[in-house]
Amino acid sequence: MKWIKDGITAPIGFNAAGIHCGVKRKNKDLAMLFSDKPCAYAGVFTKNIVKAAPVRWNMELLEQKKAIQGIIINSGNANACTGEKGYQDTKLMAKAYAEHMGTNQENILVASTGVIGQVLPMDKILDGIKSITADYGTERDYASAAAQGIMTTDTFVKEKSLQIKLGEKTVTISGMAKGSGMIHPNMGTMLSFITTDAAIDQETLQVLLKETIDDTYNMISVDGDTSTNDMVLVLANGMAKNTAILQGTKEYTVFQEAFYQLNQELAKLIVKDGEGATKFIEVTVKNMHDKHEARKMAHAVITSNLVKTAFFGEDANWGRILCALGYSGAEFNPNLVDVDYISDAGAIKLLQEGQPIGFDEEYALEILKEKEIRVVVDCHQGDAQVTGWGCDLSYEYVKINGEYRT
Fold first, then answer.
1. Catalytic residue among 9, 113, 189, 303
2. Collapsing DSSP states into helix, strand and coil, what is residue 185?
């Protein structure tokens, strides 16, 4: 497996572009992806009952097992809670994009992100679709423009690409994501778009995506809010011409590991860009008797506002960690638990077998002054292990979200 410094167009046959069309006052707000050949398509979507119009459209195409050739994405307006008009506007976006690209409406996915409850400015979007489809390509600049076009409160683009060998063929997997706020476990959490030139059928790709979600995107949290719009969409066009990937084969295992690593890195980038965040917090729960129970414990820690504020204040308040573990709903013996904090400044044990350890507060402060901090919870009750990622909760988060529409 080799990481490469390319964007969403790195796999063979994928094109992209990003422009400003006027949905936002400034910055790019429209992005496109397009494959030279129809793709196998997999998707996982928000579990919020209130689903935005593009989510509903994409879910319908997935259920119908449509081959997909492109995605059109706008930022700045979520097209959520907009009723039947919002749904018809989504279909119109797909139709207009399909017509310009010479394909069919049912071969186009749509994504929107931004402010909820506002009708899309369709005149601007349709003009934008006309413009963006006149100038797109496979070059790195086009990929970067697309990654910029999906951003809202993000402070940096989120792109990852890697290559693997499957037999004699080189297969590339690339992704771009957006997310900074409204980030919480239980898919959706953000927008993520994955392209690959691997030959893999839709059913196998969907299984792979669902297997990957639980230990990547569903193990991150910024603020505990699951959005109305969020999704992970995967397109595979087969242009690498590898032997088709099948479950249970060596090729599947190799592809699965690379796919997991790419999505894990994208998920971590989202947390690192958490709105107002000053700390990136990795929480590992290990030696637990059951992986599902360990996930509950990690989720509870990364979503606890009291834990988040303690890290923002650089306070080694391990009691908040233990408290979160206790209300997580997991069955475990607190009298066996160890808690350690680790950063580039060092490591310190705060709790051993459920008992507090006298520790050097000044040394703990040095550890917590670092930007990235690991929390290790050792349950001493089995061999299951999970890792989750979160961030602190700062004054800036309140400011950003208090002024989100302005």
1. 189
2. coil
Higher pLDDT, 111 or 270: 111
Q: Where are the alpha helices (DSSP H) in 273-356?
A: 291-303, 305-312, 318-327
User: Model confidence over 240-296: pLDDT tens digits?
Assistant: 999 999 999 999 999 999 999 999 999 899 888 876 788 999 999 999 999 999 999
209 Cβ neighbours under 8 A, 6+ residues apart? 42, 43, 44, 232, 234
The whole domain housing 354 covers 280-402
Q: Rounded CA gap, 167 and 174, in Å?
A: 20
Q: How far apart are CA 378 and CA 401, in angstroms?
A: 35
Q: Say how many C-beta atoms besides its own lie within 10 A of residue 232's C-beta.
A: 27
3-class DSSP assignment, residue 74? strand
Rounded to 5 degrees, φ, ψ at 139 are: -70, 160
Which of 219, 245, 272 finishes a domain?
Answer: 272
Strands 355-356, 346-352: pairing is antiparallel
Cα–Cα dist 169/135, whole Å: 30
CA pair distance 94, 107, nearest whole angstrom? 8
Asked if 183 contacts 220 with a C-beta cutoff of 8 angstroms, the reply is yes
Q: How many domains does the chain have?
A: 2
Q: What does the pLDDT look like over 121-138, one tens digit per residue?
A: 999 999 999 999 999 999
Do 342 and 374 form a contact (C-beta atoms < 8 A)? yes
The answer to whether residues 256 and 343 belong to one domain is no
Which of 322, 329, 328, 306 has its CA nearest to residue 378? Answer: 322
The tokens for 302 are 């990364």
Final residue belonging to a domain, choices 272, 289, 309? 272
Task: Note the pLDDT of residue 139.
Answer: 97
Query: Are 245 and 309 within one domain?
Result: no
Q: The whole model's pTM is what?
A: 0.88
Residue 167 has pLDDT above 80, yes or no: yes
SS3 405: coil
pLDDT recorded at residue 186: 44
CATH number of 233's domain = 3.60.70.12
Tokens found for residue 324: 């979160």
Residue 156: other Cβ atoms inside 10 A: 12
Give catalytic status of residue 189 as yes or no: yes
User: For residue 277, what pLDDT is reported?
Assistant: 80
